Amino acid sequence: MTIRVLVADDEELVRDGLVTIVSGRPGLEVVATAASGEEAVALVCEYEPDVVLMDVRMPGVDGILATQQIVGSGSASRVLVLTTVETDEVVYAALRAGASGFLLKSARREQLWWGIECVASGDAMLAPSLTRRLIEDRLASGAGLSRPDLTLTARQRDIVR
Asked: Hey, is 34 helix, strand or coil?
């Protein structure tokens, strides 16, 4: 099965490089490219790719808003954010918008291929460096990774029974 990919990045050289890298993997096919978030949203409707590689910083409709629009439209396309911006705010904004994954542009081509395959299969993924940092931040905040409160309401207990 071929995974159909749309590449959205406002920088032509980056876009062309991503097309070359993605096309270099058997089973991956670039079906369209977009230079803006607005164009990406329109092309998702036209081509219905399995995965959208989405840059965050683009003129006009940025990658976060474009992701929100794609996910909100009911499209089956899954968004993998690929950016140089790795602040917690951007990561959380992308995930809240409905992105299925988040990779940095410093990733190796094998990580990009794996990320595309991962989100196309329905899984979620984060760049390893981001995962480590988010876990460390959670531990440092005192929130820990402990079990959440499992108190059930009377209605929830009825449903479980």
From this structure: strand
Distance CA 4, CA 64 (A): 21
Predicted local confidence at residue 147, as pLDDT = 47
Find, among 61, 94, 58, the residue nearest to 79 by Cα.
94
Higher pLDDT, 35 or 92: 35
Nearest to 92 by CA among 67, 74, 121: 67
Mean pLDDT value across residues 70-79 = 97
Question: Is pLDDT larger for residue 106 or for residue 158?
Answer: 106
Amino acid at the residue 138: R
CA 145 to chain centre: 24
pTM of this prediction? Answer: 0.82
Cβ–Cβ under 8 Å, residues 91 and 124: no
In the predicted model, what is the mean pLDDT of the chain? 88
Question: β-strands 78-83, 101-104: how paired?
Answer: parallel
Q: Which of 61, 59, 60, 108 is nearest to 82 (CA)?
A: 108
Residue type, 160: V
Task: Measure the CA–CA gap between 125 and 90, rounded to whole angstroms.
Answer: 15
Distance CA 66, CA 82 (A): 13
